[in-house]
User: Fold this.
Amino acid sequence: MKLNKKTYAVINLTDVGLIDFNQIGETSASTIRKSLDDTQFVIKWQDGYTPTFITDSSVVPVGLYNHSEILELMASPEWSEPIPVE
Assistant:
């Protein structure tokens, strides 16, 4: 059984207008996951394919991640509000 592996990229929010949402897993700017300070967002795509806006350097990712790495990043204080302890 083959797993559908994905590549994740953190992008500066200033580049959101350059994203072709037909090439990635998110459908529009309203469905992206943003950092808490609204400066960055995450996109994903299937391994073995890279969106043309990245291959042609129209958009330069801040970083590329696999699934476990992006989960770790999403749990960081820059991406997740702390859960209050009652």
Notes: The chain has a mean pLDDT of 94. Strands lie at 6-12, 33-34, 40-46, 63-65. Helices lie at 52-55, 67-74. The CA atoms of residues 6 and 67 lie 7 Å apart.
